[in-house]
């Protein structure tokens, strides 16, 4: 698997400054992720893993360091160019789901496609396809407040997949749901990875991390180890 | 993302949170509606006052006896007995006078009037038939004072509608009834049509009787309290004033106009005084309108700021999913425009209805000024759109994650 790297970060630091108190979230982090990888980032809370994920997803900018996303230096891109990259290339699954409130599952999934300018009919077809994929074909017209946490998480996954992005970033995708549902979601991720999607996932559960092919441990804003996972967990059929 | 899609998306988000949308629209409705209602109330009042002044008669000069001036103390105007029926006759017949159309000698007094069971204190005016023409008095039923009433010194009276209501009750036919004034019994021969007005200016609270009856039988005086002179046109008012003035000076054997024992009031003077009063009134109302526009505007500003700022997270999410700044700003701008226009149109309707109700309740004229509608609408819509656009722009300039974290 010697493809070109989709993510290449070097010497990334992120420092938050609140009332002149500086908090270091990330300190001199460097790594690269090739296309087709399935990476789990692990670390205790406050280790900076979410911050790292937001930077990888072009939702936030690092204080210093260089981030090359799919061959482009993020620093040189305008807000709108970044929006387009997020729309076309990155599927982001938030820990807090971040769905539009009081809106149907179907509408939530079509949202990125609206911004991509995909025609209405195709949007609906694709939204239905991905909602079925995550097992919500019977919940499409439910509004988000009528769905359970696990169902909302799956709507968020369907939304992240709707633009068929090459890079899928997931922040604690199984954090708020029961373990059976967590397994289902991991199965979906494994299938997507087999289809060639690059997946980067944050988790604090070792069990979930075992689904990934590579595990990066992070603590106090620094990488402590970066190992490839040879005994990738078997998918239950 | 084309514009139709954007419009549908905006309408979609607006219908999503009906409470929020409703409150925003209500804020705009109240802002615009109150301005329109207040301004039209003010204008109606102003027009009503002007119409009343005009109903007193047109191109009118009023000659009144001069004030009594004794030992440096100046008494009330009209207190002196200097004008006579002969003065009035001279004005209408003299060859020195060329610009006068009608002359109406009048004598008036406030008196108690009684019927069998009721009584009222009102203005009694002794008139000749031409009074009706000069002062725009029209008859609702019966007849006005005629020349034969003057010649025969008959004991008749024509009542204003307010007097009829006070003495006999509403919608009662009072023709042929008797009223008692200063020990004399008068028969009602006519009722005038309503001219409106209230209090001091009430043109309906008047009793007209023949001038001769008034002078000889009721008041016992040969003097007049005023002579109304109608000029031939508005252009010759000043000439008429001069002609009448010099004629009366020479008749009273006075040389110096400063010694005149009478005064001539031009109706234009009254109109000018009144319009400067109503001008002050308009300024007051404009002030109220400006304040209500300001208050309404601040209300609109608040609701827009709050509702759009509340949606900072949503803006962050939309950006995270690939919405470009322009798309977000256009969406929020579209929403603001829909809100302010919906609120604006409802506000205009509410304002007009409110003005109509007020005018009905107060019995004033119903006027709606297009200027106030336009001003209220433009200011409110401008504020609504500005404060819908500004927080949306601010939020769309944040990094998506900052907007998503916004509390």
Automatic annotation (TrEMBL), chain A:
Keywords carried by this UniProt record: ATP-binding, Nucleotide-binding, Transport
Domain of life: Bacteria
Gene3D superfamilies in UniProt: P-loop containing nucleotide triphosphate hydrolases
GO cellular component: membrane protein complex; plasma membrane
InterPro entries reported in the protein's UniProt record: AAA+_ATPase (IPR003593), ABC_transporter-like_ATP-bd (IPR003439), ABC_transporter-like_CS (IPR017871), ABC_transpr_LolD-like (IPR015854), MacB-like_ATP-bd (IPR017911), P-loop_NTPase (IPR027417)
SMART domains: AAA
Domain ABC transporter: 7-235
One GO MF term: ATP binding
Leader peptide range in chain numbering: none
Pfam families reported in the protein's UniProt record: ABC_tran (PF00005)
Protein name (record): Macrolide ABC transporter ATP-binding protein
Source organism of this protein record: Candidatus Gottesmanbacteria bacterium CG1_02_37_22
Lineage summary: Bacteria, Candidatus Gottesmaniibacteriota
Automatic annotation (TrEMBL), chain B:
Broad class of where this protein is predominantly found: membrane
UniProt KW Cytoplasm keyword: no
Segments forming domain ABC3 transporter permease C-terminal: 288-400
Top-rank taxon, per record: Bacteria
GO molecular function, one term: transmembrane transporter activity
Keyword Transmembrane helix: yes
One matching Pfam family: FtsX
Transmembrane feature ranges: 21-42, 281-306, 327-358, 364-390
Record's protein name: Multidrug ABC transporter substrate-binding protein
Organism in which the protein naturally occurs: Candidatus Gottesmanbacteria bacterium CG1_02_37_22
Taxonomic lineage: Bacteria, Candidatus Gottesmaniibacteriota
């Amino acid at each position: 698997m010697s493809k070109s790297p989709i993510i290449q970060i070097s010497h990334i630091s992120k420092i938050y400054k609140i009332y002149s108190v500086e908090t270091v979230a990330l300190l001199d982090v460097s790594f690269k992720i090739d296309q087709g990888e399935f990476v789990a980032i692990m670390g205790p809370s406050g280790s900076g893993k979410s911050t790292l994920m937001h930077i990888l997803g072009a939702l936030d900018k690092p204080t210093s360091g260089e981030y090359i996303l799919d061959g482009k230096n993020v620093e040189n891109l305008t807000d709108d160019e970044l929006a387009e990259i997020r729309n076309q290339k990155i599927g982001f699954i938030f820990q807090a789901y971040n769905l539009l409130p009081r809106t149907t599952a179907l509408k939530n999934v079509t949202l990125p496609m609206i911004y991509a300018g995909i025609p209405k009919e195709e949007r609906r077809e694709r939204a239905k396809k991905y909602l079925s994929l995550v097992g919500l074909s019977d919940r499409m017209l439910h509004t988000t407040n009528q769905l359970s946490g696990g169902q909302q998480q799956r709507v968020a996954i369907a939304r992240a997949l709707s633009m068929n992005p090459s890079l899928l970033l997931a922040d604690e995708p199984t954090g708020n749901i029961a373990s059976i549902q967590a397994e289902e979601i991991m199965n979906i991720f494994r299938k997507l990875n087999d289809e060639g999607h690059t997946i980067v996932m944050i988790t604090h559960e070792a069990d979930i991390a075992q689904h990934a092919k590579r595990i990066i441990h992070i603590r106090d804003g620094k990488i402590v180890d970066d190992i490839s996972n040879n005994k990738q967990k078997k998918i239950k059929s | 993302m084309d514009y139709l899609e954007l419009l549908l998306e905006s309408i979609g988000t607006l219908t999503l949170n009906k409470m929020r949308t409703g409150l925003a629209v209500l804020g705009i409705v109240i802002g615009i509606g109150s301005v329109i209602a207040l301004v039209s109330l003010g204008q109606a009042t102003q027009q009503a006052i002007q119409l009343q002044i005009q109903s007193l008669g047109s191109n009118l000069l009023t000659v009144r006896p001069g004030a009594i001036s004794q030992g440096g103390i100046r008494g009330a105007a009209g207190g002196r007995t200097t004008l006579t029926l002969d003065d009035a006759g001279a004005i209408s017949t003299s060859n020195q006078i060329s610009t006068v159309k009608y002359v109406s000698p009048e004598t008036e007094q406030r008196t108690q009037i009684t019927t069998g069971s009721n009584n009222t204190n009102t203005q009694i005016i002794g008139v000749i038939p031409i009074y009706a023409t000069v002062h725009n008095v029209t008859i609702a039923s019966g007849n006005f004072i005629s020349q034969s009433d003057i010649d025969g010194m008959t004991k008749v009276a024509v009542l204003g509608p307010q007097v009829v209501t006070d003495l006999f009750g509403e919608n009662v036919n009072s023709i042929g009834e008797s009223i008692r004034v200063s020990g004399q019994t008068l028969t009602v021969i006519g009722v005038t049509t309503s001219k409106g007005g209230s209090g001091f200016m009430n043109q309906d609270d008047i009793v007209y009787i023949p001038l001769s009856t008034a002078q000889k039988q009721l008041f016992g005086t040969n003097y007049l309290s005023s002579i109304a002179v109608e000029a031939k046109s508005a252009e010759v008012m000043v000439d008429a004033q001069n002609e009448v003035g010099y004629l009366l000076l020479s008749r009273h054997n006075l040389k110096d106009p400063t010694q005149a024992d009478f005064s001539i009031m031009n109706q234009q003077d009254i109109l000018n005084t009144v319009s400067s009063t109503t001008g002050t009134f308009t300024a007051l109302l404009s002030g109220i309108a400006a304040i209500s526009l300001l208050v309404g505007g601040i209300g609109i500003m608040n609701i827009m700021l709050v509702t759009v700022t509340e949606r900072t997270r949503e803006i962050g999410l939309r950006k995270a999913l690939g919405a470009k700044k322009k798309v977000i700003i256009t969406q929020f701008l579209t929403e603001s425009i829909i809100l302010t226009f919906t609120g604006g149109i409802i506000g205009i309707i509410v304002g007009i209805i409110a003005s109509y109700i007020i005018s009905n309740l107060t019995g004033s004229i119903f006027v709606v000024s297009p200027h106030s509608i336009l001003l209220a609408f433009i200011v409110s819509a401008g504020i609504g759109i500005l404060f819908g656009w500004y927080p949306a722009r601010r939020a769309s300039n944040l990094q998506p994650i900052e907007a998503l974290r916004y509390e």
